[in-house]
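From the shared-data thread, chain only:
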Amino acid sequence: MAEVLRIAEPIETGTPSLPQNVEAEAALLGALMIDNRLVEDVQLKLQPHHFYEPLHGRIYEAILRMTDANRIANPVTLRPLFESDEAIKEVGGPAYLAQLTGSGAAVIGARDFAQQIYDLALLRALVGVGRDLVEGALDTSEDVAPLAQIERAETELYKVAEEGGAEGRAKSFSDATKEALEMAERALNSGGHLSGFTTGLESLNSKIGGMHKSDLMIVAGRPGMGKSSLATNIGFACAQRFLRDQEDGIEPAKSAGTPVALFSLEMSADQLATRILAEESGISSENLRMGRISQQEFRHLARAAAELQSLPLYIDDTPGLTIAALRTRARRLKRQKGIGMVIIDYLQLLQGSGRGGSSDNRVQEISEISRGLKQLAKELDVPVMALSQLSRAVEQREDKRPQLSDLRESGSIEQDADIVLFIYREDYYLAAKQPGDDHPEFAAWQEEMARAYGKAEVIVAKQRHGSTGKVRLKFDAKITKFSDDTDERYLPEMRGS
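Structure, as tokens:
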């Protein structure tokens, strides 16, 4: 093949050149001009900016444009586009295009050339991230903020890792249909009710079809309703199902479970672990904390702990996280641990990027956080479950069941969410109204309490994928565990959406 463009000499003695292979770029361009059908094999992954030599990137872009317009791209048809190109004049003018096709043998290795060009582009991007990180770390002229620099570097690294993937590219209807069929197949194989990841609750799975990728799910309720308990139950069940499916030889892509990242801004990791151990062993979490357990119960507890050691549930209990820091940490866990679900407990404890404490600023901050969580769900292609507090307006009503208007501080939470679940426990409010033992209404209260005790409702107030309604569950406060109510599945759908 004729002499090709030579570049990338060291800038100064001892400075290595960036990773590149100009010969491979030239060979690929020649192969594409000889056989335009090869464009289909490389264009999805390889982009013009992946070429080290800018002239080669412009030639590649011109080839893509011409083949996209169903025109033949060869040295003759491309020549008019490059007659005034200054860079091509330095290598002999438009005749350089013909020189690139000098070796027909390059057609055989076109895919390998494309892969190598792509890989070298990623290496150059890594060099760039490293260089920026070094320069930023050495520059002390501004405020020193090492954690912010680390978060920025991790964001850039994640972009490099995702480069060339599905992000930023429109899916064909064929691809979208294939995904829809896979979802339907998963629902069929699960008995007709689970198309996403399991919640561990059959009745809730039946109502919402499980937790779906790229969805933002809001779980809201007043303090004491059991939001953290439900989220922990769901996260544990999802991680446990993934582990069980792995043991059964089910490939991860077809599993109804997934590794889970739980960001707990309110409780510590050991408090959450205590809850999960209480749930799994059946021993009261209060007795666990106080040490009021027998030797037999302790052995049972140790056995449960041993079984949970390999559970793919990762707890981050860093307080005061910003939405940017949370997204960085979630990306890192996706890259390192392969997490497929994110849980945040709870949304109002996250911080936005701005400053200021006024109520107007707080509403804007919550809007920024809810948008950021929805973007995270789409970016990582995972379900994101965020817990949310409700306003005190609930307490002012006779019927204490929450409504969408009760979502605290921002209507944007309702807008950004794909699913909104409210938790309501009647026994919580009845317990607060307990009359004295000698009160004439005590017997009626006792009867009402017996009916409501241990019962819970999960109200599906919004769902993009289906109808709204109520799901009846049982709640064991001693071990903070929600379970299916065998008496009923779920109540009819509510009006509206």
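The longest helix spans residues 110-138.
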